[in-house]
Amino acid sequence: ACQATGVWDSGLQSIIHTLIEMGKQLWKAQPDNSQASEDAIQKQLDTELDCLLQLHSVDDWINPLLRLARVNIHMTPTEILHTVLLGVVKYFWGQTVHIIKKTRSLALLKAQMDSLAANGLNLSVFVPAYICHYCVGLIGKHFKSLAQVMPFLIHDLVPQDVLDGWNVIGELVVLLWHTGIED
Description:
With 183 residues, the chain is mainly α. The protein has helices at residues 2-5, 10-27, 38-53, 58-61, 80-102, 106-114, 128-133, 140-154, 160-177. The chain is 62% helix and 0% strand. Helix 2 runs antiparallel to helix 3 and helix 8 (140-154) crosses helix 9 (160-177).
């Protein structure tokens, strides 16, 4: 189903896999070269599905977004700029800057930005003086760059939970922009 439609529903995937494997085993010939009837196989699969759904309907397991009339999962792009960079990353940047300013460490953050060897990174724009001076007025390209390097810049400037948050954001950004690895 996933290959034909391009839709992967992780909630149902284990159930689908179990039913497919069970169906394959049921269609195989028995040791006495007999084969179960299609009705018997369908009945066994239906019973197994009911057991796997745990007295819920299939609709309870399907992602509710897939049932919306105006959502075509193939034609509705995820807007990374607005949802991630100008959402999560901008918010987290603002909170991090607040913590760093409160401890009077903005100059240290700028110094660590200046010492960053960014030539091996995928950074479109990284000008530490601008980022620190206009820290509340940055745009998407700045947040994309910051998301890649913040854990290395703030490891000794913020509490561990903030650093952990930036590590998660960094992993998310990698998944969003590097969706495939060529052989």
